Amino acid sequence: MDKGLVTRQNQLKGAFWGLFSELGNSAIAKEIGGFHTPNKGIKLTKGNDLLGFPYQVLDIIRDFESENGLNIRVLNWFGHGMFLFILFGKNNLLSNSDFYSENGFKYSLSSTPWDYPDLILSDNYTENPDIAFIEKSPYHQWFKQILLEKPDDFGLKLEEELKKISDFFNHRMI
User: Fold this and answer.
1) pTM of the model
2) Where do the structural domains in the chain lie, given as residue ranges?
């Protein structure tokens, strides 16, 4: 066993956990949480085995109600990347907009919103969803990978993405 590798991995997991904690307590996370009153609050989760790789999750909005729910999640899946997910209930009016495709989001074609390997590794998504498919879908999920040039940019890049979502939600609710 390479103890140095394990130490570096644990340091990296700790750094991402700190970033997620900071982001979860930020003004932008609180602002976004205010757009959906059934929100159950921010939650941090970590696991050691998603297809053999550790992962961390930051839920900024948590309401998994199937009709009008809304969940905003950041997934850091070691070895695969960091992703931003926006999950809507079947009838949530914020789900169907050109905003997502114009901002690099992909629409999930997976039978369940929780099958991240299917979405990410099997490319089970579309960039331009068919209206007929959207109307039949039991949920609507848009997601995008957060790509960075430097590791120090994660916090800034995530805040920038969340600010775009906040501005869009604010505009739609006026």
Assistant:
1) 0.93
2) 3-173
